[in-house]
Design a protein that fits this description.
Layout (H helix, E strand, L loop, with lengths): L5 H13 L6 H5 L1 H6 L4 H15 L11 H17 L21 E11 L4 E10 L12 E8 L6 E5 L4 E5 L16 E7 L2 E7 L2 E8 L4 E9 L26 E16 L9 E12 L5 E8 L6 E11 L2 E11 L4 E4 L7 E7 L4 E7 L3 E8 L6 E8 L2 E21 L4 E18 L7
Antiparallel strand pairs: 1-2, 1-11, 2-3, 3-4, 5-6, 6-7, 7-8, 8-9, 9-10, 10-11, 12-13, 12-21, 13-14, 14-15, 16-17, 17-18, 18-20, 19-20, 20-21
Helix pairs in contact: 1-4
Length: 440
């Protein structure tokens, strides 16, 4: 805690008394001594540590295995989500339970490995349902991409647009048994001759794709270790919390892991007899189509002690446009998550894709998180495909060269107290849809 000022120490301790009720009678007796005696720094540190621990938003959800309780929790989540928007939604608009299977939908998984050697390699595997493109054997078209940036080199992308893909996911099982690990399991693959030739799961990635310009094919094989949860308090809860299970929200995002240990091979630098090692961020998106405008970013500090992930932008729902943001930052000191359904949460966003610059400020009554992401080199961005109403086509630009500064503050009655700072190199940044730079 040596980076906290003396004033912050005193102020945080006082807030522990006045706001959170954390202080004990014994500590109260010693406050005058603490303010005067440097030898009692350990008491300050203990109080500040306890305050920060309490700031990590410990939630207590009821037993959602009970379907009646679950329905109440989902209804409350819907009310909070839609009431926090600038444009109110008509009553009961979010309680529809039947999906329109005549409309397009998609499901995809994203895995990005940050190597300890400074390289970055990401894999996108996605399936899309379009009524006019369903094959007789019920397989669906998809998209596979491998995006590679080795240290000091330009980013490369290897792609394929398979006619047949298949997937299964156990995520919905979490509602019936949150304590089980079965809900972590999923599998996506390309189908050729009724066999999976490329596969992405919660434990491994084994894919190959081609770059027409370079005239070369890249094969990646990776083994992923146990997941590092997005929510440090409720391990099965994702960025959206219970909003994830509202079917009428057109797009969903779940982070399986902020940083799993990964062992992988590809190309000549990470050969089978000399594999590379790193940390993997893994997530999933699903819904109707991608929103009209969005931003996504994530990063891991090289030794995997700090991680962050954020996503947000505009959603279309029943003729209304909603703007919403989701963000998480984990460090040895704090593990904070922000989402619209947390009481008093507000966001301020500043977006400039033409300069590769994005700032998000998320705050509530006692916490403020400032995330500044910048990728100045426009040539570091590469086009990636996203699902549209007509199929997969280029609709976003992504860079692995972003520098990110994150500052976490505790909001006190007199001033904001800086409690944590981190700088991420080689982070990922994506501008999509209407948030992309309009310059030629």
């Amino acid at each position: 805690m040596k980076d906290l000022s003396r004033e912050c120490y005193v102020a945080v301790v006082l807030v522990c008394f006045l706001v959170l009720g954390l202080a004990s009678a014994t500590l109260a007796e010693h406050l005058p001594q603490i303010a005067e005696n440097e030898s009692n720094n350990n008491v300050f540190k203990a109080a500040v540590s306890e305050f920060l621990r309490k700031s990590n938003n410990v939630e207590n959800l009821p037993d959602i295995r009970n379907k009646k309780i679950r329905k109440k929790v989902l209804s409350e989540a819907a009310r909070k989500f839609f009431s926090n928007q600038d444009e109110p939604i008509e009553a009961n608009a979010y309680f529809f339970t039947d999906l329109d299977t005549e409309q397009p939908w998609f499901r995809g998984w994203y895995t990005r490995i940050i190597g300890i050697n400074g390289s970055s390699i990401a894999v996108i595997g996605a399936t899309q349902y379009i009524p006019s493109q369903v094959t007789e054997d019920d397989y669906l078209p998809g998209y596979l991409a491998i995006i590679v940036q080795e240290q000091g080199q330009d980013v490369k992308i290897y792609e394929k647009f398979p006619e047949k893909t298949a997937f299964w996911t156990n995520r919905d099982l979490v509602l019936d048994d949150p304590a089980s690990s079965l809900w972590e399991e999923f599998s996506w693959c390309v189908v050729e001759d009724d066999e999976c030739t490329d596969e992405i799961t919660h434990e491994k990635v084994a894919v190959a794709a081609h770059n027409e310009v370079l005239g070369e094919t890249l094969e990646l094989n990776a083994i992923l270790g146990p997941r590092l949860t997005y929510n440090s308090n409720i391990h099965w809860l994702g960025p959206e919390a219970m909003v994830e299970f509202l079917q009428t929200v057109p797009l969903h995002w779940f982070v399986y892991s902020l940083g799993s240990v990964a062992e992988y091979t590809y190309g000549t630098d990470c050969a089978e007899d000399d594999p590379c090692f790193g940390y993997a961020h893994q997530e999933s998106n699903w819904g109707s189509v991608f929103p009209p405008a969005w931003i996504w970013s994530e990063g891991i500090i090289s030794n995997n002690t700090h991680q962050y992930a954020l996503s947000g932008g505009e959603l279309n729902l029943g003729g209304h446009t909603l703007t919403t943001w989701l963000a998480a930052y984990h460090s040895p000191r704090i593990q904070w998550e922000f989402r619209p359904t947390l009481p008093g949460t507000i966001y301020t966003a500043d977006i400039n894709a033409c300069t590769g610059d994005f700032t998000l400020i998320a705050e509530d009554a006692i916490r403020k998180l400032e995330i500044h992401v910048i990728a100045e080199d426009q040539e570091s961005f590469i086009q990636v495909s996203v699902p549209t109403v007509e199929g997969f086509s280029y609709g976003a630009k992504e860079s692995f060269s972003a520098e990110v500064t994150i500052k976490a503050y505790v909001k006190l009655p007199w001033f904001d107290c800086l409690v944590d700072v981190s700088i991420f190199d080689n982070a990922a940044l994506e501008f999509g849809g209407g948030y992309m730079c309009e310059q030629p």
